[in-house]
Design a protein that fits this description.
One of its GO terms (molecular function) is phospholipid binding. By secondary structure, the chain is mainly alpha-helical. It has 17 helices and no strands. Helix content is 71%, strand content 0%.
Length: 578
Amino acid sequence: MRYSVPRSLSPSPVRQQAQPTKGRSTYGLSLVESSDSDVSQDDDENNLVYDSESDEPERPVQVRPPRTKPTPEQRQIEETLAAIRLRTRHHDPYEEWEKQTRKDAFRVARKDHAAMQAQLLSDRDKAQAQEDRRLAAIHTRQVAEVESMLSSLKIQQQKEEDTLKRGWQERDRALWARIDAGIKVEEDKVNAKVEAERKAREEQEKKRAEEEARRKAEEDKKKAEEEAQKRAAEEKERLRVEEEQRQAQQDQERNARLAAEADGRKAIGLTTAEDDWRTARQILLTVKNETMKPIKAEKVRRSAWGEYRRKITPKIGQLTNDANAIRDITLFIQSQIMVPTSPHPPMLYTGLCSSLAKAILLQAETEVTAEKKAAIPLAQLTAALLDGGLPSFPEVLFARLAQRCGPWAIPCMLPTTDVTGQPWPDETARAKALGYRRSVEDGVAREPLAEYMQRIAGCMRVYFAVLRIPPNAARPINSMFQMPRVWVWFARLLGNERLLESPVAAQLIYTALDVLGSYALQIWGHQWVKMLELMYLGATVGFGSDGDKKKLIGGPSGEGSAARSRLKMEVERILSGR
């Protein structure tokens, strides 16, 4: 539905306000009830504008027949139609004035635009003409420059042609000179060749005589060298025999001394290095032959052993330097693996002890080799397991340590025979008893010395850290894991010259001092200072009666020199109290 709204006051001087007419609604709609024609006529009359009310003619009174009152819908339709007619027939002078004003403004704008365009075209033509004159001047100047350059190039080309002609002439003269010289050289060569052949025959005869003399001198020299090598071999053999005799005499004296001291050692519970090695070797062979082989041979035992073994390895790998974590892992290994509610059979328990010891040592070889601080939690776990009262575990652990580190865990020289009394089958078996691994890269019997030293040092660092931890007073611990073992280890190593010549000795002494040096000084005091002085002399002056430089601790190799330097600095640090 559309409504007509009264217009606002117009600023146009020709427009006047129309007077309100009778019969219009507040929205400008006619409310007179009439037919369509009547409504149209009334609208035309009501829309007329007069200067005053007195000019408006009187309307005749029309008598209309009565009609029925329209419904609201009809009234709404009629009002809508009346509004539409009113809108279509209305004429607004303001709109006409506004349209005319727009036309005038547009005409003026077009005139100004045309003038502006003409001015712009004129300015552009002037600028273009000026640019054309400038370009023509530049072109003329460039043409003159190009002509000048071409002239100079032509002169230069002529000079070069003259130079080339002179060069060709010189080359021709030189070529003919070389040809003449070549001919002369060939003639000289022929003459020289004839002369050389004559001299060669003479020289050949002379060389033949000299060769015979040289051959005779070489034969005499070879005989002299053979005699010198023979004398050197005899001297070397004599020295070897003397060394063997001296070593045998020392061994005999040592054995006699040990035999004389056997009763005293037995009374106080001391053993020799050879006894300790044989004991550890015997335990290792017993575990391998009488425990592990039967377990692996039977499926039920192998399955049970593998189930518990797979629980040990992750726990050892999860070890951190946290007291709560160490305690939890210790309790888990003791209560859930080693000593559960239902006890294991003796064979399975021994196999688990071997697996636990192997896991600890493998962790030491990998983690401690990379980071020395990793030995602390591993040593605390090992000490807690040793204090936990696990039967046979200390013996199996030390046997595994002797297997991984060889005789360096005791230390002693490897005997020429095994504990069975049989000699070692080959060099590979002997190297394995020394703790060497077979190299995976080149397949040799022994791994590189540097890797061997690092791996042995990692295991021994954990062992020395275990010795430093005070044991539980309520339960005795194996003698191999007590603090006095440190003194025994140093005394045996420093008393064996053949062991001290190895680079491994210098590396292990440094490792032991790094872990136990300051702590041992607090325990043994002045006696430990004497031990440190002995080590320092061996690393600086040398050991032996003559103090030979070739008998420094660690030997003359590069690995030994590096380990010896670390050893000297560690002794200096301990003695300075830092």
